[in-house]
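User: Here's a chain of 223 residues. Predict its fold as tokens.
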Amino acid sequence: MARQYTALVTGASRGMGAAIAERLLADGYKVLTPTRAEMDLESKGSIDTYLSSFDQSIDILINDAGINRIANLLDISLEDLQDTFQINLIAPFQLIQALTPYMKRKNYGRIVNISSIWSVVSKPGRASYTMSKTAINGLTRSLAVELAPYNILVNAVAPGYVLTDLTRQNNTEQELARISTSIPMQRLASPDEIAHVVSFLCSEQNTYLTGQTVVVDGGYTCL
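Assistant: Prediction complete.
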């Protein structure tokens, strides 16, 4: 890279977020990974306070943090729905809104929103999550059009099943084996595989790809 870019990654304490942050560090970026204590995505005030606490512009934003509260239709509370939309959609919007003026002044920026295959297909109990991730895809397309004249590229990455610590905790070995057989590639993705896709979208090598939701699922949604 001709100069060092600064990236902000939410949800970087574990799983895909941690892998993305590590990949960007290896690529030579300066990476900011705020903890929940530093920036609580449930609070607009906390987001504003964090962003005002450092004196530097952000070139790259990765909105990875998210929640997925599984519940059937009649069991979804309005509070859970609001929490899901706040963290999965509204907080990313707030960060984008706050950071794009700096990107515009530099005539350069990369924004990657982490979506999900459940924005493309769905299953019982995923209504809140599917709605929020479908909305982040729509936000991605809209802002890609709006920000393209400023050389700000906006994309989403929609991972399928990823073998994170949380996935291992929530599934037995037998369940993981069953999931693997449902995927054409016959295995779950590693967090690093998702991180490499994000790395390309953030890089100077990506000069024209914008407004896309890149599905990384081993062929799962092709079935």
